[in-house]
Model the fold of this input.
Amino acid sequence: MNTHCIILSQINKHFGDKHVLKDIFLEVPYGQIFGLLGPSGCGKTTIVKIIVGILQATSGEIQVLGQPMPDLKVMNQIGYMSQSDALYNSLTAAENLYFFGSIYGLRRNQVKKRALEVMELVSLAEDLDKPVHAYSGGMKRRLSLAIAMLHNPPLLVLDEPTVGIDPLLRQGIWRELNNLAGQGVSILLTTHVMDEAAKCHQLAMMRDGRIIATGTAQELQNRVGASDIEEAFIHYGGHQDEG
Done:
């Protein structure tokens, strides 16, 4: 059995004359938190959108959960949280959850039970009946995460999930991500925050549309004698080391 839930092979993506992804090779193991680390504009979100089936690569092959993508059945097994919150501001949080639950094919009684569970996980259970336009930016991010987890997907793809969330709540979210990984859920997330990158089981560092290094945070540091992941990233970025 393949031990990787996501495999990207020689992925290139062009937008007109702009070459935004360059020969990407990436393998994400099952049951781990895998981080894509890099500055804004390096191609992280484009990779994520190709993985979840929103964009199609210009060239290369992609498999997710053992199937070539894009594939509608596979897309329904992915919990996707985009960088910009895809929420209906005029509806309450509960109404948003029911709407997205219906898209995932959940029955109303299933959504009712699961909605309370996921909202408790993101510390929003007391705000279920509040209209989303009354939510702060951080609350909207947490609601988006709750929606991504709603249908118990085997794969979560999260694009900068903790942006705008205060440090205490970030700790709680990371505890839950680790709990989910411990239960066998595979998690791919993007970040440009170094301390979050260090919490991932494995990392791929990106710069200018390329993957410049992969490994655990400790492996990446040890290879170049860096004292932390930020120092390691600066080294790899300057040397274009494939790791």
Summary: The chain is about 35% helix and 25% strand.
